[in-house]
Write a structure and sequence with these properties.
By secondary structure, this protein is an all-alpha fold. 81% of the residues lie in helices and 0% in strands.
C-alpha cells in the first residue's frame, strides 16, 4: 500500500467515525455539515464516489436536517425562477418573430422553445429584433447560437 493509499484510508476512517458518531446521536444538522466539509477534502473521483455511497447509507437521517431542507427549498426556488425567466424570454423571442415576420412564427416557435440556455435565448431575441429580412431571421433561427 502506498503512502497516498494510507492517507486516503485514514481520511475515510476519520470521516466514517464522525458520520457514525453523529448518526448515533441523531444530529442530522451536524451530519450534513460533516458531509459538506468532507466533500471539500475529498477531491479525487474515487473518494467522491465513496462519500456519495456513504451518504446514501445515512440519507434518511440527512434528509431530516434543516440545512438539507433549506438547500432543497433554495434549489427548488432557483429552478422555478430560472424556468419563469426562460419562459418569458422564449415568449419574447416568439413575439418578436410574430410581430416582424408573422409567416415564420410556426416555424420559429418549436426552435425557440427548445433553447434552454437563457443567454442563448437573449442573444437570439436581439438577433431577431435586428434581422433585416425574413431570410436573415430564418438564418438566425437555424444557426447554432453561440454566446460570447
Amino acid at each position: 500500500m502506498t503512502t497516498e493509499d494510507l492517507k486516503r484510508e485514514k481520511s475515510r476512517v476519520n470521516v466514517d467515525d464522525v458520520i457514525n458518531a453523529l448518526a448515533a446521536r441523531s444530529r442530522p444538522d451536524l451530519l450534513m455539515l460533516g458531509f459538506y466539509f468532507a466533500s471539500l477534502v475529498f477531491t479525487d473521483e474515487e473518494d467522491k464516489q465513496w462519500l456519495r455511497e456513504r451518504l446514501s447509507e445515512v440519507q434518511e437521517i440527512v434528509e431530516g436536517s434543516c440545512l438539507y431542507q433549506l438547500n432543497i427549498q433554495k434549489g427548488f426556488e432557483e429552478g422555478l425562477e430560472k424556468g419563469r425567466e426562460q419562459g418569458l424570454l422564449q415568449q419574447t423571442a416568439i413575439r418578436i418573430v410574430a410581430a416582424r415576420f408573422p409567416e415564420l412564427e410556426q416555424f420559429a416557435t418549436p426552435i425557440i422553445k427548445q433553447i434552454t440556455d437563457l443567454k442563448q435565448v437573449e442573444k437570439l431575441s436581439i438577433e431577431l429584433s435586428i434581422a433585416s429580412s425574413q431570410e436573415r431571421a430564418k438564418d438566425f433561427l437555424l444557426s447554432p447560437v453561440s454566446v460570447d
